[in-house]
C-alpha cells in the first residue's frame, strides 16, 4: 500500500519527482567515481547489415550507449557548432561527441553538482568540452546562445517537461536544432509529443520510434552490464541497479518487450 502511494505521488508531483532524481544522481556521482563508468543510457543496436560505427579501443566497451548518441544527433552536423547537452550525467556522451564531431564548443549542463564535478575531472583533457551545474527547467544560458541542444534519456526526471522544451527553444539561435530522445509509456509519449509541438518557435523535422533497436541493445549488452554491476555495486543494491540499468529480468526491459513502453527520438528546428 505504501509503495503504491509513493509511486502515485512521484507520478503526480513534479516537485517530488525532481527531488528524487536529484538525490539519486547525486548519490551515484558521489559514491561511484570509477573512471570506466561514464554512460547511463539504454543504448541502440543498428539493424543487421548496417556498417558498424568505427570506434577506438577505449570507446568500444560503450558501443551501444555511444550509438544512441549517434542516432540522436544524426539529423544534423555538430561540426563548428555551439552545442549544449542538458542532463549530461557522467559525461560519456558529451566526451564522445566533443572528441569525434568537432563542435566549436560543447557544454554539458546537469542539476547534480557532484556529477558536474566528476565530469570536470574525468573529461578535463577533451578539447572544447566543459560542464556546469544547471536546472533543465531554468537553463543558465542567455537567449539565442547555442546552435544545438541535445537531450538523451534524461527528461523523464523533470518536473515540468513543457517548461524544459520552452527553455531549450529560448537558448537556441534561429535555425538551431533540438535533438532529443527518451522513453515513456505509450500514452505518456503522446503527451510528450503534444508538449513538443506546442512550442511555437520550432517545427518538427523527425519523429522515429527506436524501441526495437533499444531493446536489442539492452539484450546484447546485458552480460556486460551485469558484470559491471557485480564489480562496482554492493550486493544489497544490485537489484535496484539492475532495474535502473534495464537488465533483461527487470520491469523496464519487459515494458519494452510488451509494448507498454516506447522509446523515440525527435529532431526540431528553431524557426
Summarize the structure.
With 271 residues, the chain is α/β, with parallel strands linked by helices. It is 44% helix and 20% strand. It has helices at 2-12, 14-31, 63-73, 92-101, 113-122, 161-171, 186-197, 211-220, 222-232, 238-244, 251-257, and strands at 82-86, 105-110, 129-133, 146-152, 172-185, 202-209, 261-270.
Written description of the protein model:
It is a single chain. The chain has 271 residues and is α/β, with parallel strands linked by helices. It has a single domain (2-270), classed as 3-Layer(aba) Sandwich (Rossmann fold), CATH 3.40.50. The chain has 11 helices and 7 strands. The chain has helices at 2-12, 14-31, 63-73, 92-101, 113-122, 161-171, 186-197, 211-220, 222-232, 238-244, 251-257; strands at residues 82-86, 105-110, 129-133, 146-152, 172-185, 202-209, 261-270. It has a 7-stranded mixed β-sheet. Helix 6 (161-171) links the parallel strand 4 (146-152) and strand 5. Helix 2 (14-31) runs parallel beside helix 5 (113-122). The longest helix has 18 residues, at 14-31. It is globular. Residues 1-10 have low confidence and may be disordered.
List keywords for this structure.
alpha/beta, disordered N terminus, 7-stranded mixed sheet, 271 residues, Rossmann fold
Amino acid at each position: 500500500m505504501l509503495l503504491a502511494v509513493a509511486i502515485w505521488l512521484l507520478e503526480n508531483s513534479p516537485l517530488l519527482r525532481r527531488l528524487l532524481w536529484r538525490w539519486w544522481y547525486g548519490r551515484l556521482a558521489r559514491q561511484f567515481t570509477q573512471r570506466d563508468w561514464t554512460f547511463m543510457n539504454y543504448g541502440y543496436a543498428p539493424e543487421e547489415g548496417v556498417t558498424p560505427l568505427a570506434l577506438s579501443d577505449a570507446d568500444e566497451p560503450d558501443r551501444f550507449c555511444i550509438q544512441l548518441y549517434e542516432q540522436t544527433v544524426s539529423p544534423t552536423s555538430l561540426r563548428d557548432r555551439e552545442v549544449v547537452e542538458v542532463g549530461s550525467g557522467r559525461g560519456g556522451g558529451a566526451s564522445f561527441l566533443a572528441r569525434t564531431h568537432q563542435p566549436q564548443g560543447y557544454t554539458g549542463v546537469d542539476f547534480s553538482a557532484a556529477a558536474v564535478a566528476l565530469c570536470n575531472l574525468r573529461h578535463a583533457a577533451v578539447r572544447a568540452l566543459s560542464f556546469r551545474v544547471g536546472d533543465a527547467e531554468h537553463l543558465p544560458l542567455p537567449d539565442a546562445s547555442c546552435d544545438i541542444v541535445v537531450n538523451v534519456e534524461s527528461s523523464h526526471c523533470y518536473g515540468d517537461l513543457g517548461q524544459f522544451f520552452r527553455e531549450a527553444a529560448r537558448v537556441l539561435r534561429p535555425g538551431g536544432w533540438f535533438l532529443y530522445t527518451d522513453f515513456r509509456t505509450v500514452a505518456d509519449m503522446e503527451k510528450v509529443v503534444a508538449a513538443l509541438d506546442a512550442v511555437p518557435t520550432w517545427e518538427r523535422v523527425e519523429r522515429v520510434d527506436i524501441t526495437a533497436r533499444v531493446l536489442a541493445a539492452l539484450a546484447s549488452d546485458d552480460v556486460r552490464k551485469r558484470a559491471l554491476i557485480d564489480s562496482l555495486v554492493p550486493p544489497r543494491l544490485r537489484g535496484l541497479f539492475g532495474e535502473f540499468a534495464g537488465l533483461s529480468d527487470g520491469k523496464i526491459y519487459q515494458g519494452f518487450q510488451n509494448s507498454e513502453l516506447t522509446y523515440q527520438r525527435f529532431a526540431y528546428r528553431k524557426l
